[in-house]
Protein: Reverse transcriptase domain-containing protein
Organism: Psychrobacter aquaticus CMS 56
Amino acid sequence: MSGKKLKVKTDKKYSIDQCRLYRVTSLKKLCEILGINNQDLKVLIDKSKNSEFYHCYVNQKGRLIQEPINLMYRVHNRIANLLSRVETPSYIHYSKKGCSHISNAKAHLHSKQLITFDIKSYYQNIGNETIRKFFRDKLKCEQDVAYILSIICSFEGSLPTGSQISVYLCNLVNLDMFQEMYLQSHKAQQQFTVYADDITISGQIVNDSHYNVMKKIIERYGYTVKEEKTKRYNSNQIPIVTGIALKNTVDVKNVFYKESRKLCENININIDNEPYAQLKDKYLSLKGKAQYIKQLNKEVPYFILQTQMLLEKKLEGQI
């Protein structure tokens, strides 16, 4: 790990040609911008040493995480700070100040028909060449600079899953693809949003012909759609967009309430038998669920509040 986590500041916004990485013409200038020396740069681009700069592990969801550490972490944080400020279109809701999975869902609130679909293995399929082209064609860097940035910003040829840069690069390297999809949707008078690998189109009429057009665009850019996760909703169904249920307003999914009730029942049954650490974990989990419900301006169910108060008393030694 890299000790204290470095923040990414998103307080400023600018067009891509105002980014400090725009038109970098030499490796000396690149080092200056990244806050490193020439020897540091040589170490970073040595492929045989890449494993020294990443902590790789499988998270609780079974996903392989490649987390940059040490010098690589500091450089990724610097690049992330520069890329995070580049303006992206309003239909992109991922990793933007003032946007979230909730704002992404809200964009489709009053649509009658809706289709959601995911890009398969999104980060893994954003490769060195795609990253290099972004730095060369969009940020207008010299060829050697663009190539080296593509090496620094990837792990074993792909966008690393645990890096701060990845949540910004996954938007930026695919701006042309997303813009093409947006224009197709706009022409059909549909709403279009992107949240990482999760894409949604909605409107009065959204059918398989519209979906197939989107698939063809995605395939032309070298990606594929995860067919098993594609969902179609009509006006008589409650759509789920980036985990949010679209009713008269944005709402929590029914399954979320069921899981919360099950957690509360488990706590109430085992509160006198479980160790402090486990009860603390469950308390934090329950608190997180309550905060999530409040984010959607919904009233937290009484059974959650009651169990939360019970846990607080138990953890404070009052019962």
